[in-house]
Amino acid sequence: MTTPAPAPVLELGADVVELTRALVDIPSESGDEKPLADAVESALAALAHLTVERVGNSVVARTGLGRPERVIVAGHLDTVPAAGNLPARQEGDLLYGLGACDMKGGVAVALRLAATLTAPSRDVTYVFYECEEVEGDRNGLHRIATERPELLAADLAILMEPSDAGVEAGCQGVLCADITVRGARAHTARAWMGVNAVHRSAEVLRVLDTHVPERVVIDGLEYREGLSAVAVRAGVAGNVVPDTCVISLNARFAPSRSAAEAEAYVRGLFPADDEFEVTEVVPGALPGLDRAAVGSLVRFLGVEPRPKLGWTDVARFTELGVPAVNFGPGDPVLAHTAGEYVSVGQLVECERKLGDWLR
Amino acid sequence: MTTPAPAPVLELGADVVELTRALVDIPSESGDEKPLADAVESALAALAHLTVERVGNSVVARTGLGRPERVIVAGHLDTVPAAGNLPARQEGDLLYGLGACDMKGGVAVALRLAATLTAPSRDVTYVFYECEEVEGDRNGLHRIATERPELLAADLAILMEPSDAGVEAGCQGVLCADITVRGARAHTARAWMGVNAVHRSAEVLRVLDTHVPERVVIDGLEYREGLSAVAVRAGVAGNVVPDTCVISLNARFAPSRSAAEAEAYVRGLFPADDEFEVTEVVPGALPGLDRAAVGSLVRFLGVEPRPKLGWTDVARFTELGVPAVNFGPGDPVLAHTAGEYVSVGQLVECERKLGDWLR
């Protein structure tokens, strides 16, 4: 008989670096967040100034001070799969380990604020959620928005995704599509009796190779679009002229384009006689720097906002009617890399700055 | 307890159409030729004018009349996998079924000749062999050439592969190669930080799409070469710029090119900075119409020789120093199709013409 491992305990009194290390050392790959969600729930439930609720493996903790403004501070608990990068280890100013950058550093900052700000100047809703790294219908924020939408009511959401301790505003949209180029099979000994779908795909690849993505400026921020083939599939047998070639695209588009506009734009780049099927499209989110709550935060933090190029749940908050920005420790380029890390300096800076704004 | 099915028996006294039907109805997918080889061996062993030998699931039967010339009449016993095309069925002049065209019709003609020509004008070696439709080192002719080369000594080989009851002379060579185009991975949200191997493959596909294969005339026969992409493989994940794209090629080249010349020619068509790896190359066989034994047969049959475009074991005989041609019933274009058939007219014509030449 084996004794179950003791449930992990989070000590919110530890400093933000120790707390990040502790979070990294509780594995929480998407779908396996329960031990970490349990630890977060227990730690927050011990704090008298917060009301804690659980939705699946997401935890929501709120102050209820009757302030005129309410701010959401949110972070996802899950990580991509481990890549030989556990447990956490510190080298000088850098803390390495799975999720250190994306985004247990940000979660640690949020937990520290939740523990220490007993009477913030704005009411705060802390959201620690599951399944951000996987398909959208498993996303914890999506589930909360569906089952308990009142928990996400706020004037501003700060998503603590890695943004190098700066503000990344808005986010780009994503369009995935398959282009299917058709031909006709034939034996390769008589190739001229068929039509080679791979050869016919030369034009699609030429378009991709020569396309110059646009750079769209919104509220002074430059969103750099992208258009990438992420897969090609063709092949029947070693001596058969293939009759089908499928090129899968992943396009990133500026938040000024609607999903329909993005689709029309990308579709229009390619030969009209090939099949073009959109497999997924999610719109981006405008930076919203002109909205009062966002402007106030940006001015207070004293940082120059940058555009967010990847898609984040900022878009989901925007869809819910809550202006949102990314602000968190960690270089976003390191997300999902085996060597990801977060710097001690950014952890401390984010805790201090956000604490000062909420104090 | 189940009773084993009785071993199939071939009645060589039946006409060539009935014999073809009987052969089709004994399944013999490559690797499973034993029941058919047993039936062929038994039927031939009953004929006093033939000496019968067995090598694996190949059967060799020879006359020993001391004639100044010896001719091989050969056909493979195996077929590609069934495709809902068993048992055989006749519709008017056409006999349908797995292998009817490739090449149980030809085997039936050879068996009829073996049974009826008790004292041919030339000594004859009949070869019924296994595993032609699979990789070359399993090929029954290859095995006989290795273990019993003396059985394949002859002045001429007639391979009864489907050639529309005409003579298809020589055969083209085959070159298979993989072109690997390299790039560098990146997240699609920052695609410009990587190099997309699929986009870079545009030039390879352009070469394929615009290449005009050569038409090489040898002994008055036009060999039409071919260059086909048969597969493309690329893709890491839905949001990753792929760092590798592999394009698999299948080239058919005229028998006037050596394997080395074919490789240099094909390699030279593509960008030099992409990796080019030859995965298989087999030379073709010159038509050899200037060789006495071949010329005599062609003149006797009174047919206009045509070039063979696919690779056949004619090339193997040529390598062994035995001039060889393809001459058999069935449209070669129907080989390996679910709807393959052979016409009664061609079965009868091939038996009559070859019989007349050997009588």
Write a structural description:
- Two copies of one chain form a homodimer.
- With 359 residues, chain A is α+β, with helices and mostly antiparallel strands.
- Chain A folds into two domains: 16-170 and 285-358, Zn peptidases (Aminopeptidase); 173-282, 2-Layer Sandwich (Alpha-Beta Plaits).
- Chain A is 28% helix and 27% strand.
- Chain A contains ten helices and 19 strands.
- In chain A, the strands form five sheets. Chain A has an eight-stranded mixed sheet with strand order 1-2-6-3-7-18-8-17.
- The mean pLDDT of chain A is 94.
- At the A-B interface, helix 5, helix 6, strand 13, strand 14 and strand 15 of A face helix 5, helix 6, strand 13, strand 14 and strand 15 of B.
SSE order and pairing:
Two copies of one chain form a homodimer.
Chain A: H1 16-24, H2 34-45, E1 51-55, E2 58-62, E3 70-76, E4 89-91, E5 94-96, H3 100-116, E6 123-129, H4 140-147, E7 156-159, E8 167-169, E9 173-182, E10 186-187, H5 197-200, H6 202-210, E11 215-218, E12 221-224, E13 226-235, E14 240-241, E15 244-253, H7 259-269, E16 275-282, H8 292-301, E17 306-307, H9 314-319, E18 324-327, E19 341-343, H10 344-358
Parallel strand pairs in A: 3-6, 3-7, 7-18, 8-17
Antiparallel strand pairs in A: 1-2, 2-6, 4-5, 5-19, 8-18, 9-15, 9-16, 10-14, 11-12, 13-15
Helix pairs in contact in A: 1-3, 3-10
